[in-house]
Amino acid sequence: MNIPTTSQAVIEREQQSMYQVYRRLPIAVQYASGCRITSVDGDSYLDFLSGIAVNALGYGHPRLLDAVTRQAQAFMHLSNVFYQEPQIELAELLVQHTGYARVFFSNSGAEAMEGALKLARKWGNTRGKTEVLAFTGGFHGRTYGALSIMAKPLYKDGMEPFLPNAHVLPFNNSETLRDAVNEKTCAVVLEFLQGEGGIVFATPEFVTTLLELQEQYGFLIIADEVQAGAGRTGKFFGFDHYLVKPDIVTMAKGIGGGLPLGAILMAQHLETVWDKGMHGTTFGGNPVACAAGVVVMKELYGGVMRNVHEVGCYLRENLNVIQQNFPNIVEEVRGCGFMAGLKLSVPAAPFIEALLKRRVVANATADTVIRLLPPLIATRKEVDEFVIAMQDCFKVYSEQENIN
Ligand SMILES: Cc1ncc(COP(=O)(O)O)c(C=O)c1O
Q: What structural domains does the chain harbor?
C-alpha cells in the first residue's frame, strides 16, 4: 500500500487512535535499509538507535530476509507442542558459544526477566532463600516482576502493589550491598552494563564484592543482557568484560535481529528446577524469529562482533575528541563498542532534536545522556557522519549560549 502522505498526517491519525504513552520522534517511516531510515516525506536519516538496540544487522540484511522468508513459507507458528528446527538450532548456537546449559525462549526482555525471577524463586524456595535484590538505574521491563526490581517512579507510581521480597539498592555501592545480603538472599539481578540508566557500567570493585558475597551466601546472579548482550559491546555478553559467570542470563532485543524474541539462558545446576508445564508461552520461540536469531548468531561470530569492536573503538576516539572540543557541555564519554553515551552537563533532549534536524537519529536517556546504539554493522564512514552532525549541534549550542 502506497498512500501519498506526510509525517504530519500520520502523526495526527496516530493521536486519534492510539494510547498516548510513547514520546515518538516526529517521523513516519516509509522504508529502511542498512543504517538508514527514510521517512514518508522522503527524508533519509542515519539511524544510531537501531530500534533501541534491536536491529543488530541493520535493515534489510539479505541473509536475514532470506532466512525469515524461507521460514515463513515453511511455517510461521506451530506452538511449543511441536519440535521445530529453528528453535533447536538457535539454542544449540547459544549453548555452544556461551557455555550455558539450557535455553528457554520468550518473546521479549520483560518476559525473559519474569521467567528468570520465577526460576530463581523456585530454586530459592526449597532453600529458604526468598529475597531478590536489584539496583537503581536498572531497567528490566514493564511487567510486574520486572517493575518490582526497578526504582524509577515514572514507571511505577500509582501501580502498586508490586512483588514482595524485592529490594532495589543503590548501584555500584558495595557497602549497601554487603548490608543487604544474607542467608535469605535468593538472587541478585543486575545489568552489568546499564543502558536506560545512562550507559553506566558496574565498577570492578562492585563486581568483586558481589562475587565474594555470592561465595559466602550462595545466591544466584541474574544478568540482564537484554540491551548489552548479543554482541553490542564487541563481546557477546556485556558481562564478558568482567571475570564473572552469572547463573541466569536474560536476552532479547538484538538476538531476534528485528523480530520479537527473548531468551533465558541458565547454568547446568538449574536445568532441573522446573518440571514440564511449570513455565511456558504460546508465542515464545516463534520459528520465524528463531530463524532470524540463527542468522544473527552466525553473522555476529562471522565478523560483525569484530566490526563492533573495531568501529566501536573508532567511535570512542571520536567521542573523546568531541568531549575535548566541548568540555563544558560533555562531562563524560561512556560505554564501549556500540553501546555508547555522552553524559552532558545539560539536558540531552534538545540535542536529539538538533541531531534530527541534521538527519541523525539518536536517543536521550537518564535526562542528560545522549545514547548511541548504532546497528552492529555500522561503518567508520557512518561514525564520521554522526560525529560531524554531533559536533555541529554542540558548536551551534555553544555559540548560542556563549560557552566553551
Ligand atoms: C536491559 C533491559 N532489560 C529489559 C528490557 C525490557 O525488554 P522488552 O521491552 O523487550 O520487554 C529492556 C528494554 O529496554 C532493557 O533495556
A: 7-60+305-401 (3.90.1150.10), 62-300 (3.40.640.10)
